[in-house]
Specification:
Length: 255
């Protein structure tokens, strides 16, 4: 029954997407808007078909930067969340710093990192890591603290060490929260990479979008936007599938 439900949900999502593109296409043609103001989806498709290697190579750069940044953000969030779980007295200090980082506009930080670190991949990874670590941190803290008092007492009765309790109980219970954090952080990783590329890069979809904006050539920009949107949906779907594969027991409890 679950695969049928998943297929039904995917079919509905595809149907909604197709309807949105049909409406967009019809609106552009009926309104007569020029292509330099609002290209139609067909214009974006033709733009991609004209030079697919240009867009796919740019996508590869952006995905690589987003992936490394997500790993950095996940690692930082998991380590800090584990420290907070082990030493609750530092939670206020850690969360204050985390909220400070979260509240700082990345569009202001990205140009500085580009000036300091150059146009390579390092500033993009750092920006992406800063953008993705907060949802991971919050979900790790909540997940590691989600164990009931009875379960913690059971581990104490079994004379489990703190490491054993952390590895066998807390991490196990935090997996649903970790995947929930990844659902949010993974699409944000693409946003972080593109924002960093926009401020200065030698490649990537953010670079393509910036050049399109600078030259008032909107079809490549909308093509890049659609590619990023589709990539984000694919990444989100992959995380859902991994979640159902690795924590199927959680979904069985919810059903």
């Amino acid at each position: 029954m679950k695969p049928a439900g998943i297929n039904h949900s995917m079919t509905f999502s595809i149907l909604i997407s197709v309807m949105a593109f049909v409406f967009w296409e019809g609106f552009v043609h009926i309104s007569g808007l020029p292509i330099y103001l609002l290209p139609a989806p067909s214009d974006a498709v033709l733009e991609f078909a004209g030079d697919p290697l240009y867009f796919t190579s740019a996508l590869g750069i952006t995905l690589a930067e987003a992936g490394m940044g997500l790993v950095l953000g996940f690692t930082a969030g998991f380590v800090l969340g584990s420290v907070v779980s082990a030493f609750p007295q530092v939670e206020d200090g850690v969360m204050t710093l985390a909220i400070l980082v979260k509240s700082t506009p990345l569009v202001a930080i990205a140009p500085l990192l580009t000036i300091w670190l150059g146009f390579g991949w390092v500033p993009k990874v750092i920006i992406t890591g800063l953008l993705t670590f907060f949802p991971i941190l919050v979900n790790v803290i909540v997940g590691l603290q989600s164990g009931s008092r009875d379960l913690n007492d059971l581990m104490s009765v079994m004379k489990a060490s703190k490491w054993q309790s952390f590895r066998m109980l807390k991490i196990y219970l935090s997996l649903p929260f970790l995947f929930a954090g990844l659902r949010v952080a993974a699409p944000l990783a693409l946003v972080g990479a593109v924002v960093a590329e926009w401020t200065g890069a030698s490649g990537g979809l953010g670079r393509v979008m910036w050049l399109s904006y600078a030259n008032l050539n909107l079809p490549p920009m909308f093509t890049s936007i659609l590619i990023l949107s589709f990539s984000g949906m694919v990444i989100y779907s992959v995380i859902i599938l991994l979640e159902r594969r690795f924590i199927h027991w959680h979904h069985a409890q919810l059903s």
